Amino acid sequence: MKRSNKYNLEVSFDEEIVTLFKEVNNLHHLGFRVPFGIQLVASSARQVYPFAVSLTETVRTYQQASARAP
Q: pTM (2 decimals)?
């Protein structure tokens, strides 16, 4: 009897946070003061964003390649 264990890997990154750091940047350039707590969250998201996108694409590519394998 062959047991099939299937696992699903997902990257947990809220896409709405991308909108937050873009809007904080826009507000800053327009001369508006953004509360420090929101700036802090936006800054953290901006630092993590490239890694999240890269990891998401890597996982997607791996899953596509695995689906084609016999």
A: 0.72
Distance CA 33, CA 31 (A): 7
Q: How far is CA 55 from CA 25, 28, 33, 62, in A?
A: 24, 29, 33, 10
Distance from chain centroid for Cα 44: 12
H helices of 1-70, in order, are 16-29, 36-68
22-48 pLDDT, tens digit per residue, is: 999 999 999 999 999 999 999 999 999
Q: Is 11 helix (H, G, I), strand (E, B) or coil?
A: coil
